[in-house]
Amino acid sequence: MPDIGLLAPYDFSPLTILSFALVLAGYGYALLHMAPEQRPGSVRIVTFVVGVLLCYGVMQTRFDYYSQYMFFVHRGQHLILHHLGPFLIALSNPLPIFRFWHEQMGPTLRSWLRPLGWVYRILQQPVIAAVLFVGLIYFWLWPPIHFDAMLSRQLYWTMNWSMLLDGLLFWWLMFDPRSPVLTNALGYGKRILILAAVAIPQMVLGAWIVFSRGMVYDVYEVCGRAWPMAPETDQLLGGLLTWIPPAMMSVIGILLILRRAMHEDGRVVKPSRLAGENL
User: Fold this and answer.
1) Phi and psi of 229, rounded to 5°?
2) Half-sphere exposure (CA, 13 Å, Cβ side) for 159?
3) Handedness of CA 179, 183, 189, 193 (dihedral sign)
4) Local structure of 186: helix, strand or coil
5) Distance CA 116, CA 169 (A)
6) How far apart are alpha carbons 47 and 37 in whole angstroms?
7) d(Cα 141, Cα 136) in Å, to the nearest integer?
8) CB–CB of 187/180 below 8 Å?
């Protein structure tokens, strides 16, 4: 029988559990009260829930224990928090859910949330979004900072939440479902350029970890490892997880954006050509 204890939180965080519970409850409530024609399809719903549960799983199950005592598991944790989980959430297009809750808010609540909107618009500037996305990875993997973060509970939680929130902001900017032709959403060409640009420094960092001589992150030597694995192997696997999967996700993101751009071109450009032929 599977060990149920693996699903129990290693480092219980009421705030984290409450946050994820509110997200899922808010999503479910919106689905039940939305008009049928506005409700996301089953594939989009499953994609959203899987993305949320993946992020929850690496933060509030036994996975979190292993990520604190094995470097390669830690890199897998951040791969999910910064890439895969937010990637799936953004790809599921929860925009109808956002619109539903925006309509439920009163004028007072909207005015209170207005400063968050200003911050959001600043963080979604293309250059800022790209620099922040890569910069956070480099910052938390800077050996002195990483050492302190793995030994401090507050810094550790700050690190994980910053990776998750930044990942959500970045991938939403990439997969914003609004048309750049009809709205002020970021153009598809710029999105592709950003995805290509952020892949390069991640690959460089991963390669540096893989080919470094000696231990780069000795905090796992100080705390001890969860499994009897050679330190060099742990570092090698962690470097590969920093190097290859993020680059592959950029490639997948570019392909998805290209597909969306070609699909939109067929819907927007062709009707205009037909209109020209009828003149």
Assistant:
1) -110, 145
2) 24
3) negative
4) coil
5) 13
6) 19
7) 8
8) yes
SS3 assignment, position 212: coil
For 229, the token pair is: 């694995």
* Total Cβ atoms within 10 A of residue 27: 20
* Spatial separation of the C-alpha atoms in residues 276 and 279, rounded to whole Å: 5
Helix (H, G, I), strand (E, B) or coil at 12: coil
- Look at the pTM and tell me if it is higher than 0.85: yes
Contact of 130 with 202, CB cutoff 8 Å: no
Q: Is the dihedral of CA 183, 187, 188, 194 positive or negative?
A: negative
* pLDDT mean across residues, the chain: 91
pLDDT band at 243, cuts 50/70/90?
Answer: very high
How distant is the alpha carbon of residue 236 from its chain centre?
Answer: 24
> What pLDDT score was predicted for residue 4?
63
Q: At what angle do helices 153-175 and 231-277 cross, to 10 degrees?
A: 20
Spacing of C-alpha 8 from chain mean position:
23
